[in-house]
Amino acid sequence: RLGVVAGAGAAAGAAWWYLEEEKQRRRRARRQEELRALALGQGSFQLVDQTGRTRCKEDFLGTWVLLYFGFTHCPDVCPEELEKLGRVVEMLEEEGRQKGAQKDAIQPLFITVDPERDSVDALARYLRDFHPRLLALTGSPEAVRQVGRAYRVYAQAGPPDANGDYLVDHSIALYLLGPDGHLLDYYGRSKSEEQIARSVRHHMGTYQPLPS
């Protein structure tokens, strides 16, 4: 009798596990279809990093990317979000070291929404305060606008003050790109680094390339 009960319990557990896995699989498939329908981040780009090197989207294929759009004259929000981005990367790197995984498994990336002021030299100076592997990209105003449109980033320069300085109102989000270059998730300002790192780990563990 005990054997029968134990067998029935094991079968019930296996059935529950299968149903839970199937539910998760369907949820991931539905999420993938939603992201495909949004068509965020489609197409390539050609910008320049803080060292003057030309970069395109294809350079990051095969790598996980956490992407943020902002500008160097931002007084508080952008520094806070870039610091958060850096802490997320450090958390993932530390976990990777403990598991013997690749250290540079995720690339932090910053794209300016203010190319008129954010030159290569300005970006190089700005990045000294953030994660050492953070890459920053700039380019012509049209090239930058094109990338912003691909991710539906809102960016609007405000009126200049007496010194000609101005702020740029823009979307605030971190974008997670998978190794195939497609958008997998995004995180608003309210998300903590722990929540983001946990989400990124989940995506890494369940990753499947989006079908073309």
Automatic annotation (TrEMBL):
Keywords of the record: Copper, Disulfide bond, Metal-binding
Disulfide bonds: C74-C78
Superkingdom, taxonomy of origin: Eukaryota
SUPFAM superfamilies in the record: Thioredoxin-like (SSF52833)
Annotated positions binding Cu cation: C74, C78, H170
Membrane topology recorded in Swiss-Prot or TrEMBL: Single-pass membrane protein
Gene Ontology annotations of biological process type: mitochondrial respiratory chain complex IV assembly
Keyword presence, ATP-binding: no
UniProt-listed InterPro entries: SCO1/SenC (IPR003782), Thioredoxin-like_sf (IPR036249)
Family annotation (Pfam families): SCO1-SenC
A cellular-component GO term for this protein: mitochondrial inner membrane
Keyword Disulfide bond: yes
GO molecular function annotations of the record: metal ion binding
Main localization of the protein described in the UniProt heading: mitochondrion
Subcellular localization(s) per the UniProt record: Mitochondrion inner membrane
Membership in a protein family: Belongs to the SCO1/2 family.
Designated name of the protein: SCO2 protein
GN (gene name): Sco2
